[in-house]
Amino acid sequence: MLSRTAENLFWMARHIERAENTARVLDVAHRTSLLPLDIEGSEAYLWYAPLNITGCAISYEVKHGLARADMVTHYMALDAENPASIYNCLWLARENARAVRGAITSEMWEVINDTWLEFSRLPQQLDYEKLQDFFDWVKNRSHLFRGVTLGTILKDVGLSFIKLGTFLERADNTARILDVKYHILLPSVHDVGGAADYYQWGSLLKSVSAFEAYRKIYRDVISPRRVSELLILRDDMPRSLHACMNEVEAALIDINGTSGQEARRLAGEQHAALHFGRIEDAFDQGLHEYLTDFLKNTALLGKEIRNAYLSRHDTILS
Amino acid sequence: MLNKYFNEMYADNGTVREIYEFYNRWLKALPDGTLERRNAEAELLFRRLGITFAVYGDNNSTERLIPFDIVPRIFGAAEWRRLELGLKQRVRALNAFLHDIYHEQEIIKAGVMNAHQILDNAMYRPEMRGIDLPNQVYAHIAGIDLVRVAENDFYVLEDNLRTPSGVSYMLENRKTMMRLFPELFVNHTIEPVEHYPQMLLDTLREAAPPNVSYPVIVVMTPGAYNSAYFEHAFLASQMGVELVEGQDMFVHQKKVYMHTTEGPQQVHVIYRRVDDDFIDPRVFRADSGLGVPGLMEAYCSGNVALANGVGTGVADDKSTYLFVPEMIRFYLDEEPLLSNVPTWRLSEADDLKYVLAHLPELVIKEVQGSGGYGMLVGPTSSKAEIEAYKQRILSDPAKFIAQPTLALSACPTLVESGVAPRHVDLRPFVLSGKEIRLVSGGLTRVALTEGSLVVNSSQGGGTKDTWVLEG
């Protein structure tokens, strides 16, 4: 497969996944904002979280100052100036798809093109009452894209690059969501285990569609340790780090080829740590430190993948 | 305005021509509003599929749909066979001409054309002198623009031998028509066009360097922002080959490779949709980022084939066009089956004098222009426009040719007021490999504005499906 084609497939999938995750993050922020939170300046506090998860807190502050529900939502959903906004994710996904139209099925192209066309018809300001519909729409388009992809595309190396993009992005995002909950939303140790804490963990679970799974698996009160275990180590949980790295490693093995040894080694190492790891160890290290390490390794893996498959060197290696 | 033109559907006495009879019966039986409804459906379909094109110099709509008209343009089998023969003959002569001017130049020696006419043409590529191409084919893909002025009279308006486009519309139009009007296809035998990509693939395979048994073929595009990008991607996927950009390829020891996830892979045939000027910055335009440095060297060494070949522009130039009937006589020893439009060359003093005196009746074109840009249609232009154009002509007359305003035939077309005649032309696509092939049909372009003769998509023209009835 052409390196440029692989690159566009990889990023097309990442952008769609990122749009979905941003919608999930905003969704949970909105749900949480409906709960009473008894602290001074709680709005700014609460709405700082989604900005932090997506790494756009600083650029937001430069533009708008204090975090406010409507501003943050607009900035993350519709703002063309925010490179990580849903607007830009869907636009870039379509640009990626357009660049490799021959390498994706026409059904896939139709979904991506349609999504963009529908999105670009949205009003410039989202109605407060319609927000939930909007988040659901973004998630549904992403589900649709994945379904169409799996249902129509040839199972060759192209699909592997799509999976690679999807699951690398998803792993990155789940780790960020977990991390932010642990550090931003709990102003004092005193609040740990309180009612607010319970609801926040609950909405975090909902944001990654894991609330029902949690109930089913643990049949017990929501505890940070179990939530972390579920979202980090359980490989039957579709958005957990372990499940994502399963897919990443499998995709890299499918791609195979002469290059990419270092990428395969890194993925294998990361996968093994999740496969054999215990949640106690993560907590001993400190969950924040653990997740920071994970994000660092994921970024490194992304860089290796780029080097091995996606970049172009004008030489023949003899 | 033209009063007299050939109506494709109705004879002079108002009766429906035989080939349109079944369509007319079907149309008459259609409940009111059905055509309009299906038209709306078609538009939605095209937009969703993203069959768009870009218009140069139009910032607001970088992606626009070419209007698609749902009334087909119909040919009978017999008249199509005659056209087919004429087209094959013309393309055969054009390829023979290209081979000749880059080799022995017999046509100059015989005094049929003068050396200045060919060798001083900016599109003549001296780099191609003495280079042998497989099957002596230069223009593998030719788009020949035809207009009809009477029942049995077709004129060739233009030969497009560089990177002719539009074939994806021919294919998508057919797909759309079959989806919208399955009943018409069930009850009548319309010759298929869907195998065009397979024919193109066969043609490209035959263009490969002779010692390669399993050529790797690619389609080369200038990129996603090119106006015909949809078509490039479409053809690549229909043929099952990679769609590459210049940046995806490099040359090593006079061989062309593309970057793949498994390392470099050699490429043998490039169906390039990039103009000569941009394919190799080392030989042609140095500022081009679209090409591949060293590509010409690889090409001239015979390690890679380009379709179309380099240097075909000299043969589809409007000043060379005048000599095509002579080429047919010279190379094939046959009488031309398709006529040229009578043309005045403004480089000739007598022609210039006549043309300047008759500007309001004529169509003036730039010798090097394409796509309907920069032409003057006398009968529909204002006095001021004509005067302004006259000044342009006088500054360099040799840059222009003039032709009579042709009475383009008209075909029923769905417009706001209902179904009404609109002027059309036709671009069939002729493929040359070991043999010459074409599908039965082509791209019919239609001028949607009443009375307008400009069918170019960049100037607000639309397209139609073209049917050849089996007979």
Comma- or semicolon-separated keywords:
heterodimer; A: 318 residues; mainly alpha; 15 helices; 0% strand; B: 471 residues; alpha+beta; Dna Ligase, domain 1; 2 domains; 5-stranded mixed β-sheet; 16 helices; 23% strand; globular
Give me the Rg of chain A, rounded: 20 Å
Q: Unreliable stretches of chain B, pLDDT < 50, 5 or more residues?
A: 54-61
Number of domains of chain A: 2
Tell how many strands the DSSP assignment of chain B holds: 23
Task: Name the chain pair with the biggest interface and residue counts per chain.
Answer: A-B, 33 and 29 residues
Q: Mean pLDDT of chain A, nearest integer?
A: 88
Q: Give the N-to-C terminal Cα separation of chain B.
A: 36 Å
Contiguous low-pLDDT stretches of chain A (5 residues minimum) are none
The portion of residues forming beta strands of chain B comes to 15-25%
Average per-residue pLDDT of chain B, rounded, comes to 91
Structure class of chain B: alpha+beta
How would you name the oligomeric state of the polypeptide chains in this document? heterodimer
What percent of residues of chain B adopt helix (DSSP H or I)? Answer: 25-40%
Radius of gyration of chain B, taken over Cα atoms and rounded to an integer in Å? 22 Å
Order of helices and strands of chain A: HHHHHHHHHHHHHHH
The shape of chain B, in one word, is globular
